[in-house]
Amino acid sequence: MCTQKRDDLLIAVALTEFSVHFEQIDPELSERAWQLAADRLVEYDVDPEAAVATLEIGGPNPLSENY
User: Could you name the domain of life of the organism this protein comes from (predicted)?
Assistant: First the structure.
């Protein structure tokens, strides 16, 4: 995967995560982060889950009940 695409997808995943965690604290900032993430994902025609899979991150969580 080219470096620019990987960087853009990593940024999109980080912005999505930020958006989720700050939704209650600052809804306006959360919405802006979500929009920035969406803009990057649209460029590569992927959704957040596909970005995580493409980047091969987000494996099983050892703290998860289903692990």
Answer: Archaea
